[in-house]
Amino acid sequence: MRSGTVFDIKELGLYDGDGIRLTVFLKGCPLSCVWCQNPEGQRMLPEVFRHESRCRSCGRCRIPCTHPDCAPYGVCLRACPDRLVGLYGKVYTSDALADEINSYGDFLRYGGVTFSGGEPTLQSAFLREVAEKVPYPKAMETCAAVPEEDFLPLALLMDDLFVDLKIMDEDAHIRYTGQSNRQIFRNIRALDGAGKPYVIRVPLIPGITDSDENQDAIAAFLAGMHSLKRVELLSYNPFTPHKYALIGRAYTAAIADRPSNIRTDLFTARGIDCVALRLRGAAPTR
Ligand code: SF4
Ligand code: SF4
Predict the structure, then answer these.
(1) Domains delineated in the chain
(2) Which ligand approaches the C-alpha of residue 142 most closely?
(3) What stretches of 103-205 show up as alpha helix (H) in DSSP?
(4) Could you give the CA distance from residue 216 to residue 219 in angstroms, rounded to a whole number?
(5) Whose CA is nearest to atom 5 of ligand 1?
(6) Contact criterion met (CB below 8 Å) for 5 and 212
(7) Residue of minimum CA distance from atom 3 in ligand 1
(8) CA–centroid distance, residue 190 to ligand 2 (Å)
(9) How far does residue 45's CA lie from ligand 2's centre (Å)?
(10) Using the 8-state DSSP alphabet, how is residue 87 labeled?
(11) What are the angstrom distances between the C-alpha of 108 and each of 19, 103, 148, 160, 193?
């Protein structure tokens, strides 16, 4: 049986599939988008968070701890009386995660479970095992930046699919996400070729992804697709990047201080169903 790492499970999602959703956030992402609102989801392994700004420097958490849950991290995760130190990431077997999801059965009857991240396809084999043990409707949010053998078999198990498409220019994609977009294009074409219905989501980050040229290029790429249900343009929701500080990272994105440029007309002119939504803020909280 396989194991995987999850960094949050949240109830009452409303936008990632039909009805109300239980959202499971898988840890690890092949991209490192400069605007990412869930930086604690980017690294695959569990990582320590610490609220330095509220720390009273009592030193309790720094006393050497040999408990197996704490020893790998060089800090005691249970000592802080104010719970200012903890871990992003919990390792589950596929049975344990499926059992936890299925324990929300009453709730899941009114919607289903959505796998998000980070990037769920990075733990594809684990998640396929989980999905086969969950009898409720399943959806997945994905950046699709993984090999097709990790992407397609998992995608085909889902009832609803939300695929991000951020930037069409390859150099700009590398600059702002750290990776080429060519595998993403291949996976979207493979999905379309398999006849699997999907939604494309475009995060409109001011000054980065929301130019007329980028939206027009995305519309042109999607114009010939047969299984595309609709495009959702997600306007940017400014956020407080405190989670970067919690994991000892700096937030350096230079995002234009203006609302997103929303061009649904560029898509509808090509016969593509297109709606504008607000990009949700940082979902998991600690
Ligand atoms: S794909 Fe999503 S989770 Fe991954 S780095 Fe980009 S915004 Fe963050
Ligand atoms: S136990 Fe809590 S208050 Fe004390 S040093 Fe550690 S984080 Fe700070």
Answers:
(1) 3-46+89-278 (3.20.20.70), 49-84 (no CATH)
(2) 1
(3) 105-108, 124-132, 148-155, 170-177, 182-193
(4) 5
(5) 32
(6) no
(7) 118
(8) 50
(9) 23
(10) E
(11) 9, 9, 29, 15, 30
What separation in Å is there between the alpha carbon of 82 and the centre of ligand 1? 30
Does ligand 2 come within 6 angstroms of the Cβ of 57? yes
Instruction: Give yes or no for residue 286 having a pLDDT over 80.
Output: no
**Cα(37) to centroid of ligand 1, in Å?**
8
Q: Which two three-digit tokens encode residue 100? A: 């936890």
Q: Cα(65)–Cα(67) distance, rounded to whole angstroms?
A: 6
For strand 47-50 and strand 85-88, is the pairing parallel, antiparallel, or unpaired? antiparallel
Q: What is the pLDDT of residues 65-104, one digit of tens each?
A: 899 989 888 899 998 999 999 999 999 999 999 999 999 9
**pTM of the entire structure?**
0.92
The atom number, within ligand 1, closest to the CA of 117 reads: 3
Q: Which residues line ligand 1 (CB under 6 A)?
A: 29, 31-33, 36, 38, 41-42, 117-119, 143
DSSP 176-207: HHSS-SHHHHHHHHHHHHTT--EEEEEEE-TT
Mean pLDDT over 172-179 rounds to 98
Confidence check: pLDDT of 279 > 70: no
Confidence of residue 47 (pLDDT cuts 50, 70, 90): very high
Residue nearest ligand 1's atom 7 by CA: 36
